[in-house]
Amino acid sequence: MKRNDKTFPLSDNVTVEKVSYKNRFGITVAADLYLPKDIDESKKYVALVIGTPYGGVKEQGAGIYAQTMAERGFVAIAFDESFNGESSGEPRHVSSPDIFTEDFSAGVDYLGTRPYVDRNKIGAIGICGSGGFALSAAKVDRRIKAIATASMYDMSRVKRNGWEDSMTDEQRNKYLDQLGEQRWKDFENGSPQLTPTFPAEIPEGLDPITSEFFEYYVAPRGHHPNSIGGFTITSDMSFMNFPLLTDLESISPRPILFIMGENAHSRYFSEDAYKMAAEPKELYVVNDARHIDLYDRKELIPFDKLESFFRTNLN
């Protein structure tokens, strides 16, 4: 096994190519294209577009998923969301529910125009925050024929309602007032201020959820210099105004697979989305797994389940 700019070893059974394409906003999306080493480009393959955990980049967890699915015979791309990683877009590190959702459809544009991809057999995988974006894209992009999420976060719900829906109307209005003030500051400064970025080392005394994320993003386990953790503060206005999972039942009859860890702090997002979705749907629990364990722990990520799900529903 060899390594390059990824946080994981590259497989000898796949080929990886850096590619790029524009979304409908004209932003250039950077992606890694993973192909089976023995691909026969005269044939048509099932393809997957795979989104990163929120704040992550394609060289981390999304790349692990894309590479492993390519080892199993799929064509797969892992992409950087607009404004982040190696994708274009100014100002840098904007977080946009609308554009991040569009990035999934742009991936379908790209895959469906490859001569070796069957454009009627394209699925999506969203990890953490991109799980919500993948589902949102599928609501309106019927070219996405099957959707799987892993450790899903609904970022619009977090921003609008607070963690575990704990934000009151008074607190929400106070935060919106702060965001309005921040817009004036950003305008006067000529550039937007970011939320705190990942530190160089893991500090002591962290709450359990932050500690878990830092275990992945800050420690050598998952650290990548393009994954800084910070977004523009005023990005939160879009999430508070753009509910991602409204009308989730409209995805039916296309199937959805929700994968969550037994011990994940985020499991309520998958459980609630599962209730909102219409059949066919499945909620799959990974024993002894936390939220971040479904980013990179290949012995826990249920790749057999993912393969059977997409083989069954895209063939």
Summarize the structure in words.
The protein contains 10 helices and 8 strands. The relative contact order is 0.15. With 315 residues, the chain is α/β, with parallel strands linked by helices. The model has no long low-confidence stretch (mean pLDDT 97). Strands 1-2-4-3-5-6-7-8 form an 8-stranded mixed sheet, sandwiched between helices. It has a single domain, classed as Rossmann fold (3-Layer(aba) Sandwich).
- Total DSSP helices: 10
Say what the CATH topology is: Rossmann fold
The unreliable regions are: none
Strand order of the largest sheet: 1-2-4-3-5-6-7-8
SSE order: EEEHEHEHEHHHHEHEHH
Query: What oligomeric state best describes the polypeptide chains here?
Result: single chain
Number of β-strand runs: 8
Radius of gyration: 19 Å
Shape descriptor reads globular
CATH evolutionary superfamily = Alpha/Beta hydrolase fold, catalytic domain
* DSSP helix fraction: 25-40%
Q: Would you identify the CATH architecture?
A: 3-Layer(aba) Sandwich
Strand percentage lies at 15-25%
- Straight-line N-to-C gap: 31 Å
Please summarize the sheet with the most strands. 8 strands, mixed
